């Protein structure tokens, strides 16, 4: 009942004449060579895909920079008109600030990616009041949803009280949650967005962002944390963005 393990190996069998009564066969184990060849092929494919993504990223980056820049220039020119009604002036200032914020976020993302690739990212841990952070995010994104006149309902759900403190990098935690909520707003046209945090174990905090948006196909979900990756990386795509948010 002993089982024999079958092993597939690559070998070279030199040619021979069938008329000979005896044959001397020399076998050369090529398993390692074939493994190396396979790894080289995969590495080449990954490099080509990385180059393709970076090319698409640079094309989209130009578009993502021009859009807020054009708005900044345009609204700045309009605001020079002293006869503008107060309501229009207020609206133009809001759009001007939004464009500046979008450009600032884009620059921050680019700097972060450069630091990550250069291994210069630093985590600065300090005391963080989680509930205060969540309340701040809720207030900010509730106003953003109102400003774009979206029918989406935003809600904060948490069992964390105002006195709960943990040690973490406040800026990075806020950045991660902001990117996730921004993504939810971008891809949700109706329904709801829920986010929050719960203490699932004495030493475990679980953060979540849930929405009724278009979602991501299961066969693409493993790609969402890749740098420069978007399901649609063409300039004519429906949704904006550089693909850096979740990376």
Automatic annotation (TrEMBL):
Q: Which SMART domains does the entry mention?
A: HATPase_c (SM00387), HisKA (SM00388)
What EC identifiers does the entry list? 2.7.13.3
The UniProt entry, under Pfam families, shows:
HATPase_c, HisKA
Determine if Transferase is one of this entry's keywords. Answer: yes
Q: Name one GO molecular function term.
A: phosphorelay sensor kinase activity
What sequence ranges are listed for the domain Histidine kinase?
60-247
**Catalytic function, reaction form:** ATP + protein L-histidine = ADP + protein N-phospho-L-histidine
Top EC class, one word: transferase
| Gene3D superfamilies from the UniProt entry | 1.10.287.130, Histidine kinase-like ATPase, C-terminal domain
* InterPro entries (alphabetical): HATPase_C_sf, HATPase_dom, His_kinase_dom, HisK_dim/P_dom, HisK_dim/P_sf, Sensor_HK_Regulatory, Sig_transdc_His_kin-like_C
The protein's UniProt keywords, in alphabetical order, are: Kinase, Phosphoprotein, Transferase, Two-component regulatory system
Protein name according to UniProt:
histidine kinase
Which species does this protein come from? marine sediment metagenome
């Amino acid at each position: 009942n002993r089982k024999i393990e079958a092993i597939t190996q690559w070998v070279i069998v030199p040619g021979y004449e069938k008329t000979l009564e005896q044959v001397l066969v020399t076998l050369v184990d090529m398993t390692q060579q074939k493994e190396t060849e396979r790894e080289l092929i995969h590495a080449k494919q990954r490099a080509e895909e990385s180059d393709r993504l970076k090319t698409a990223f640079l094309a989209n980056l130009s578009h993502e920079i021009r859009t807020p820049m054009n708005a900044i220039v345009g609204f700045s020119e309009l605001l020079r008109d002293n006869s503008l009604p107060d309501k229009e002036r207020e609206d133009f200032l809001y759009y001007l600030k939004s464009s500046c914020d979008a450009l600032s976020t884009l620059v921050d993302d680019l700097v972060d990616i450069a630091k990550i690739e250069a291994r210069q990212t630093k985590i600065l841990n300090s005391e963080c009041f989680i509930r205060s952070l969540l309340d701040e995010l809720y207030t900010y994104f509730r106003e953003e949803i109102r400003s774009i006149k979206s029918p989406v309902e935003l809600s904060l759900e948490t069992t964390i009280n105002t006195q709960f403190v943990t040690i973490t990098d406040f800026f990075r935690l806020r950045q991660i949650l902001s990117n996730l909520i921004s993504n939810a707003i971008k891809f949700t046209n109706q329904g709801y967005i829920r986010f929050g945090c719960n203490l699932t174990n004495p030493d475990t905090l679980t953060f979540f962002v849930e929405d009724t948006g278009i979602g991501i196909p299961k066969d693409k979900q493993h790609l969402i944390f890749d740098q420069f990756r978007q399901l649609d990386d063409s300039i004519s795509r429906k949704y904006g963005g550089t693909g850096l948010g979740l990376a």
